[in-house]
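Example 3.2
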Amino acid sequence: MTPFSRNLFMKKRFAVVGLGRNGLPVARALIAMGAEVLAWDDAAASRQVTDVPIGDPSLDERSFDALVLSPGIPHLLPAPHRLAAWAASRDVPILSDAELLFQAVRRSGSRARFVGITGTNGKSTTTALLAHILGVAGIANEIGGNFAIPALALPRLDDGGVYILEMSSYMLDRLATIRFDVATMLNLSPDHLDRHGDMGGYAQAKRRVFDRQVAGDIAVVGIDDKESIAVAAAIGDRPVRLVTISGNHPADIWCDDGVVRDAAGEILAMAEAPALPGTHNAQNAAAATAMALALGVDRATVATAIRSFAGLAHRQQVVG
């Protein structure tokens, strides 16, 4: 693991809007990578920073390469923020910082793998659990996105490393080039419909975690609700390898009478993992198992790591 180059985004200009727990670290990271940044927040108190240039980008006549909009600020529904509308009117891409992390990693020459995890429920637990498994296996990894710290604030990983990004529907709506080597959608139930219009719009946003995947990539899909079953059926027609998971009925990896298993046999009795009670956590464990196996972790190490998982309390800090 080495720092990103200080000229990685040299000659690039970014507008960063929203200076909370997501936007301010992102602005600082872009500056550290050589970009020119103009940052803004509608709240005057949030603009009282001295290490980031502050200004309304709509009053700047120069061009911008992208607008980085904090996840909580809408760019479409229920109504676009005025600076999102300004960017759209000038064909300025509106991006998530997860997209910029991917660009930075590839610009730096690293082939580190990317894992994207989404779903209505269980994202944070599954993200933390996979990171724990990879850590036990000795695989360098960093977690971020909607979980822990903003994606672009993560350090550079070398080729053998893995970025594990919890992806909200808001973040998935603002991607351009990122491709997840392993992408997971745990489940779908109505949520954030004000931002997506209806359940169809919400599901469409979630499905974007699988965009740009190619042959050899892994798509992990929970099949414990009808909306996710439809997503799994659609992915089955693509060249990626589909792995279905469930907390309570047969799938490629599922929990059968309290035991996580696959076609090759038993992997782990959930009773041995006290930090993961209930059917919903059985699905989370099945998802983390599927991803870990896809990333080259052996079955015994997966089981050992899940048994020792201590839960979220020591590392969760969800970014709004």
